[in-house]
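Hi there,

I know you've been waiting on this one. I reran it after we fixed the sequence typo, so this is the corrected version. Both the input and the resulting structure follow.
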Amino acid sequence: MPHDVLRKAPGGMRRIATPLSHGVFLGLLAASIGCPAFATQPLLQTPPLAVRIAIVTAAEVEPVLAQRLKHASFEQESASREARAVANWVVDSGDSQGMPFAIVDKKDAKVFVFDADGRLRGAAPALLGLAVGDDAVPGIGNRALSTILPTERTTPAGRFVASLDRNLQGKEILWVDYGGAVSMHAVVFAKPAERRLQRMATPTPLDNRISYGCINVPAKFFDLVVRPAFTGTSGVVYVLPETRSAQTLFGSYELAVPAGL
C-alpha cells in the first residue's frame, strides 16, 4: 500500500489498513520460509480478504478524501499557487471563523476578497509598500510619514482581523494593521508624479511598490467589493509573505485541488 495513502487516510482507516497490510506481509514471509501455519494453505486465485481491503483502501481513499475537502472558488481569476493554497486552507480549516476574508498576494501585487464560504467576490491589482519585507518597524505607526525611510516602508505579512473605519480625512478605509497604521483603501493621488493609477494598470507587479505600507486598490473595487464584504462585520486579511513561506507564517497546509478550482 502506498505509504502516502496511509498517511493521508482518516485515523480510523489508518488503524484498519496498517495492521492488515502488516498481516499480509507477515503471512507471505512465513509462507516463503516454510512456516507450517501458512505452508499448508493452498494458494488462492482470489486475493485474501486483507489484500482486497488494502487494495480498496489505496484505490478509493483519495477520491473520498478529495470530496470532503473544502476549497475556495477563484472562478476564472488567475492566481498564484500560494494564494490558492492559503485561500483553500482558510476555507477547509475554518480559520476565518465564519467571517469574510481577503488574500493580499504581495509578490503578484493582487488582492482577492472572499465571502466566508470561500466564494470569490472580486479581485484587483494593488499598490503596496515600497520596501521588500514582511515585518513592520516597531512603533512605525506613531511616526510622521516624513520620518519613515524608504527601507522601512513595508507592507507587513500576517493574519489581521480587519474592519471598516474612516481616516482623519473622513475617507472610508479597511484597517488591516491598526498598530502599524496599515490599511486597505482606494488609491490616492496626493503626488501625481508617483503615477499610481498607471502603475496599477501595468501587467507587471514590478512597479506596484510605491506606498508607505498601505494597500491601495482601485476606487471602484473598494466601493463594490471591499466595502460590501466587510460592512456590518469584521473580517480577516491574510497578507502573504515574500521572504518566507506562507506555511511557516500561518501554519497552513496545502490541499489537493480538483480540476477547475
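Quick highlight: The CA atoms of residues 198 and 207 lie 9 Å apart.

Best,
R. S.
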